[in-house]
Each structure stands twice: as C-alpha cells, then as structure tokens.
C-alpha cells in the first residue's frame, strides 16, 4: 500500500482570464475548484495508475468538506483527520502567465496532530509513504523528518518531496527516491551547472548521502535518473503546455506507483516522465488515458 501525506491540502481555485489588470475589477472567463495539495495530486495519479493508495492529511471547514468530497468522488481512498480550522484555498491565476497565491494553512491543534500520528501504526513492511507539500504554521519545521523513524521502524519506505536543508536532512534515512528539479539541485550545492555532467555529479553526491534513486526534472528539457550503478536520460514529451500545477507531483507519483508494482527504476522513471508531461498538457491532474497517450513518446537512454 502507498500512503500519501498532505498535511496542508488545498482547494485549488483556478481562475482563467485573458489579461489581469492590477488595481481594476477583473472578471473571470473560466474557473474551477480542484482538490489539490501535493500529496493529493500524487494520490490522484496513483489512482489513475490503478495503484492502491490512501490519502492521509488534515481537512476542515467547508473547503475541507469539498476537498474530501472531490477525493471520494474520484474514487481515492482517504483517511483524513478532521480539524476545527479551515482547509486553505490556493489561487491559481492563469492570465497569460501563471501566478499562484498559496495560503499558509490552518491551525492544527496538538490533539489533531496526535490523532494523525496514530495512523502511522497502520504501516506494514513493504508500504511506501509519500510526504509532499508545505507544512502549516502550527507544525514544526522538522515534522516530516520526525515521522521518518516511525515509518522505517515499521519496515516501510518513504519519499519526502521537499527542497533545501529539509531534503538534505532526510537523506541519512535512505529515501526511496528524491526529485529535485535542476534549479533545486543547484541550490542544494549553492552552485550553477555549466553542463549536464555537473548535474549528474551533484546527483551522485545525494546518492552517497543515502538517497536510493535520484530523479532530476528539467521541465520541457527532459530528465535524469541517477542510480548507484547507472545514469539514464529521458526526453520530455511534446505537447502544448496548459498547466504547470502538479507536474512534479505527477512525476513523483508515476515513479513511486510504478516502482511499487515493478521494482524497476528505469520503467518507473519512464512512467514518471509520462505522468509529468500528461499533467502539463491538461488543465487538471492527468487521467489514465492522457498518461497512456504520452508513454510511447518517452525514450529512456542509458548514458553511463
Ligand atoms: N514543458 C514541458 N513539456 C513536457 N513535459 C513537461 C514540461 N514541464 C514539465 N514536464 C513534465 O513534468 C515533470 C516535472 O516538471 P518540472 O521539472 O517542472 O518539475 P517541478 O519543478 O517539480 O514541477 P512543478 O511545476 O510541479 O513544481 C518533467 O520531468 C516532465 O516530465
Ligand atoms: O503550498 P505548497 O504545499 O507548497 O503547494 C501547494 C500546491 O501549490 O501544490 C500543488 C501543485 O504541486 C497544488 O495542488 C497546491 O495548491
């Protein structure tokens, strides 16, 4: 079983208009309220890949109710902790370019946090836990890290989709996969990369520090999978980009979901790239047929 953890899920309020004029009354041409948050997006892709999973997290208020309703309507199993405060609403403004305004997130009480932590006792050997997205202001900065020992004790694998020092702090616990984009990878080493060889050298350092697999995403420029023995490159799919929300989550989900089934990192990389591309070319998180249509486009080549 794969569990996704979204401590700070959101309703993504996607607004489309041709042009935004600051300081004026603007009117939307199209809008959607979508269940969002990085782990929720991971669950959506896992569901499309027919990979059994359960979404964990905190939901509250009318927005949390709508989020839980949408998650259930999509056939995703969830086991949320209900909180008193309100799930945030993140504004995704598509007016030529995309602008995002993400809420800080709700208050979560100590009792609610404890109720959440007891869920980890359900973990079994062979499970995988994917933790994604921002923390709410009431959670300590090391919240994800504090869950890892419990996850490992129960024989489960984990993935934390985060960046910077928080990512580095997880490496000693041997995450199944990490997926920095190339900018995040450069920031980890406070450098800029002159070429792809330097990217790979940096990825190897993360393997040396404990990561089991390193994916480097480079948006439309393709990606790398770096394992202890080999380096693979994949092209990005070709299509019209209509959405940048959730591409990274889709790639993580594609990798984790496929790896759970096959234990094959190369196949998992390929499906991850396809899921990322499929979400980029659609208004919401991609569905199974959109993913299937992209898979034949992805070619993985062993570089070394
Ligand atoms: N322009 C694009 N064309 C094709 N595929 C894309 C494009 N942008 C993103 N993707 C797909 O999505 C994956 C993740 O994208 P990206 O490298 O932007 O990650 P990210 O920065 O984590 O994403 P996010 O915008 O969700 O934070 C890429 O590896 C690729 O598979
Ligand atoms: O504020 P966070 O938790 O960093 O990111 C939240 C978020 O932007 O991430 C998803 C896309 O990756 C969206 O569904 C959601 O609104």
Automatic annotation (TrEMBL):
The lineage of its organism: Bacteria, Bacillati, Bacillota, Bacilli, Lactobacillales. It is an enzyme of class 2 (transferase). Keywords: ATP-binding, Kinase, Lactose metabolism, Nucleotide-binding, Transferase. It catalyses: beta-D-fructose 1-phosphate + ATP = beta-D-fructose 1,6-bisphosphate + ADP + H(+); D-tagatofuranose 6-phosphate + ATP = D-tagatofuranose 1,6-bisphosphate + ADP + H(+). This is Tagatose-6-phosphate kinase. One of its GO terms (molecular function) is tagatose-6-phosphate kinase activity. Residues 8-284 form the Carbohydrate kinase PfkB domain. PROSITE patterns: PFKB_KINASES_2. Belongs to the carbohydrate kinase PfkB family. LacC subfamily. NCBIfam families: 1-PFK (TIGR03168), pfkB (TIGR03828). One of its GO terms (biological process) is carbohydrate catabolic process.
């Amino acid at each position: 079983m794969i569990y996704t953890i979204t401590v700070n899920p959101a309703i993504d309020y996607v607004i489309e208009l041709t042009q935004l004029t600051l300081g004026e009354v603007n009117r939307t041409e199209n809008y959607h309220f979508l269940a969002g948050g990085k782990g929720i997006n991971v669950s959506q892709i896992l569901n499309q890949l027919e990979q059994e999973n359960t979404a964990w997290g905190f939901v509250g208020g009318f927005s949390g109710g709508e989020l839980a309703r949408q998650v259930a309507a999509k056939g995703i199993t969830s086991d949320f902790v209900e909180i008193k405060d309100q799930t945030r609403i993140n504004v995704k403004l598509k007016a030529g370019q995309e602008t995002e305004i993400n809420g800080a997130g709700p208050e979560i009480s100590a009792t609610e946090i404890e109720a959440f932590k007891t869920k980890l006792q359900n973990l079994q050997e062979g499970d995988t836990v994917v933790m994604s997205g921002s923390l709410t202001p009431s959670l300590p900065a090391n919240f994800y890290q504090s869950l890892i020992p419990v996850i490992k004790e129960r024989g489960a694998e984990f993935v934390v989709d985060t960046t910077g020092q928080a990512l580095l702090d997880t490496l000693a616990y041997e995450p199944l996969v990490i997926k920095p984009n190339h900018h995040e990878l450069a920031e980890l080493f406070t450098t800029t990369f002159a070429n792809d060889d330097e990217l790979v050298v940096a990825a190897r350092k993360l393997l040396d520090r404990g990561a089991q697999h390193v994916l480097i995403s480079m948006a439309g420029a393709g990606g790398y999978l770096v394992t202890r023995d080999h380096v693979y490159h994949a092209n990005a799919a070709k299509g019209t980009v209509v959405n940048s929300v959730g591409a990274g989550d889709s790639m993580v989900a594609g990798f984790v979901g496929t790896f759970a089934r096959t234990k094959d990192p190369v196949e998992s990389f390929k499906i991850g790239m396809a899921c990322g591309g499929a979400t980029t070319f659609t208004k919401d998180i991609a569905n199974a047929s959109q993913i299937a249509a992209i898979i034949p486009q992805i070619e993985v080549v062993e570089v070394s």
